[in-house]
Amino acid sequence: MSALDLTLLLILFASIVALLWPFLFYPLILRALPTKPEALRAGAAPSASLLFCAYNEAAAMPEKLANLAMLKCLHPDLEILAFDDGSSDETAALIAAEGDLVTLIRGPGRSGKAHGMKQLAARATGDVLIFTDANVMLDERAIGNLLARYADPQVGGVLGSLHYMGEGDSATASVGSLYWRIEERLKDEESRTGNVLGADGSIFSIRRSLYPVFPDSVLDDLTVSMAVVFAGARLVKAKDVIARERLVAGRGDEYRRKVRIAARAWHTHQHLRPQLRRMGALDRFKYASRKIIRWFGGVFILTGGLAALSLALRISPLLALAAAFFALLLLMLGMRAKSGPIAALTDILIAYAATLQGVMKAMSGRTVTIWNPAKSR
């Protein structure tokens, strides 16, 4: 075997390991780490404020408001605040009609979720701030179970568990559901061993005293939740705090969503970098494994594919041509397929491409501050 062949094999092997690292090797390492228990104590639950932002969510509002009414009935002291980001439909009117239930803050126009959440946090009075999304429904025990975790004074933030609905609606939804089940298990293991490294916006909370200052260009979910870790407190996940949301079924919607999230995530990483460097070794390892390596999965696919193609060329140009044709054929079939393994594989590749595009977009200096709800939920 020549030196070039060995180099190509090493590149291919390294690309495969890096691609599988967040989903195979990292979880195995987490399972081998010892448990860090919480010091749960009896006592009165802290006061809480539930916050969410909305833009053109009129279709989801009746169910959302009914869900909030149920939670308010169970927790009469729960403060609920909503920010309308310049909706052009009836979202603001529907929320305003429930003035006894929800305090509505109207934005001046499209200013973005991060800006809206900062406005809500500044007005909230609860000891604990609970963040959720306009299209997310919380189970009846979610608030009580979440607040109970704050009996441990070392706990500064608590994430819930997101359960997606509509898994069978399309291959995109099925892949999204599988990805999220893996993500939930990773968070469970991270929580068991110390800290979860970042939250998503469906359901998470922090002590109000830990709420940070940050620009509108970052992901508020990641920025706010990581402030708990930076403060030396624990960010944990509660399996019994359940939120439910419908999956995105359309490829176009999911692609645009992943580009937007990845671009904002990279800007968030740049904003948090000085504090990330001061984290403990275990938390830095978790962050790199679950965040950074995954953001560049598209690069690992490209480098691995090019290495494999180069090796095939060295064996036989005809073999390389046949392999490239077969890969292109599978991609074309996957783009047209609505279900099945080929469609699922195509959606995985599309997800990696969208994430890489978002990161490259952010690295070039561009960002996205506003969002639009997916039409295919």
From TrEMBL:
InterPro entries, per database record: Glyco_trans_2-like (IPR001173), Glycosyltransferase_2 (IPR050256), Nucleotide-diphossugar_trans (IPR029044)
Keyword annotations of the record: Glycosyltransferase, Membrane, Transferase, Transmembrane, Transmembrane helix
One function term, GO molecular function aspect: glycosyltransferase activity
Superkingdom of this protein's organism: Bacteria
Segments traversing the membrane: 6-26, 292-312, 318-335, 342-360
Residue ranges annotated for the Glycosyltransferase 2-like domain, each copy included: 49-211
Enzyme Commission designation: 2.4.-.-
PANTHER family: SLR5056 PROTEIN, UNDECAPRENYL-PHOSPHATE 4-DEOXY-4-FORMAMIDO-L-ARABINOSE TRANSFERASE-RELATED
Protein name (database record): Glycosyltransferase
Species this protein is from: Sphingobium agri
